[in-house]
Amino acid sequence: MNTNNAAVSHSKNSTAARRKPRQARAQKRHDQILDITAELLDSVGIDGITTISIAKELNISVGSLYHYYPNKVAILCALASRWLNEMTRTISAVDENIAEHSDIASYVKVYTHKIIAMYKRQRGILPLVQAMYAIPEVRQLDEQHDLLMLARLANAFKHFGCKANKTELERIARIYHETTYICSMAIVDQQGRKASRSEADLNQMLNALLANYF
Amino acid sequence: MNTNNAAVSHSKNSTAARRKPRQARAQKRHDQILDITAELLDSVGIDGITTISIAKELNISVGSLYHYYPNKVAILCALASRWLNEMTRTISAVDENIAEHSDIASYVKVYTHKIIAMYKRQRGILPLVQAMYAIPEVRQLDEQHDLLMLARLANAFKHFGCKANKTELERIARIYHETTYICSMAIVDQQGRKASRSEADLNQMLNALLANYF
DNA sequence: ACCTGAACACCGTTCAAGT
DNA sequence: ACCTGAACACCGTTCAAGT
Q: In degrees to the nearest 10, what's the CA dihedral of B134, B136, B138, B142?
């Protein structure tokens, strides 16, 4: 009794969707399942969700539900993945327009602003994502997503003439990313009041972090 | 089906320990239960823990276990509480010696260092705390703990002559606290390599945050 | 008085039987 | 072929019966 195996007999083999969505109809069902799951997550919380309740809401049987996803974790994973992809897409836009910025400070400002705006828009689902964070598979997804963002950041820093080597670049990007993430969450939490001031404070911290390396 | 009730019939009335530990023997049992739970958390993960496994490890029956704690969540809560208190105690020491510091920068440096050292010492249990974070009661405990730390920080800032009003003080303390927390986690994660440099970067960010208010 | 563990209520997952 | 939902395996919690 010493290795980290969940030791449950329930099948958790794959967390991927079961049938490839060749037909538009099947894809629609997959999406519907995620929509319903998101709604239930909101109304009954992550502990209140049951596979039967999801199936019932869709007017299909549990067995049918298991045609689309191999298990409950897979459904939650797919939902998390959809959210993460949405975020990535939003932020990618900043990077694609990197030519717009003449210096790093300008980039930092827009980057911060976009992230906060996005978190604000998704205010309702943030606690849900947080609740799902307990699921190891979701955590892994999030880490992959982070790696992508870190690579982007490191690239942008180099583009603006950062004088750090590769290892250092990775390290700074990590601190930059984590700081932006946690402060954006805090800013979104504090319901509008003085949020612009907080955003300025975050920018100041980020610029101070980068100052030594430019 | 719209309010956020867990809707389970399991009794979750109180999360406090059941019998007041009047006798030293009962207190010892309470501690033993938490010790065993921490061990199991480490070996089988939070999803692998069962009340029966805890009882078995203690050589008592499940029924007996329920004499000491009203339910499984209460046990995990008590464990989290023990950890949080340990942390609070460690950090309180910095505040009690506030007179040692002539300026805010000196305070920031020691504060950062103590926090990182503490996280390093608890490296093993940090992922466990993170896993427990999914439990709403644990989250609440953590928030209470945070409020305490924030009050401390705001006080210290004022002591060193911070020119911010009460609302602003709270806001800055929050950003300070969150940034320290997330960066310390990141620093501890990166296994020693270049950690001292990261610590310097964190300090620089914190000082930049405070600069406008002193 | 105190402890035990079978029994009950749930929920995730499967698969034999229906269409 | 596809869907159904009773059945099975688990786990948290209780409480009648034992000491």
A: 100
